[in-house]
Amino acid sequence: MEFNKIKTTVLIDKTLKKLAQVHAIQNDMTLGELIEEGLRKILV
User: Whole-model pTM?
Assistant: First the structure.
């Protein structure tokens, strides 16, 4: 059961990274710029 939780977590992580990359490309940004912008919104 524990292995399935780890596998699911890894799949979710990979999916979120892919979605972030697509969003960054669509908005003509690098992934780093997208992360920086997201952090700025959270921290300010």
Answer: 0.67
Q: Give the residue ranges of DSSP H helices in the chain.
A: 2-26, 31-43
Any residues with CB less than 8 A from the CB of 26 and at least 6 apart, and which?
none
Dihedral (Cα; 26, 28, 35, 42), 10-degree rounding: -80
Look-up of token digits 């990359």? 21
- Are 24 and 31 a contacting pair, CB within 8 Å? yes
Q: Which residues contact 7 (CB under 8 A, 6 or more apart)?
A: none
**Sequential pLDDT tens for the chain (44 residues):** 688 889 999 999 999 999 999 999 999 999 899 989 999 999 98
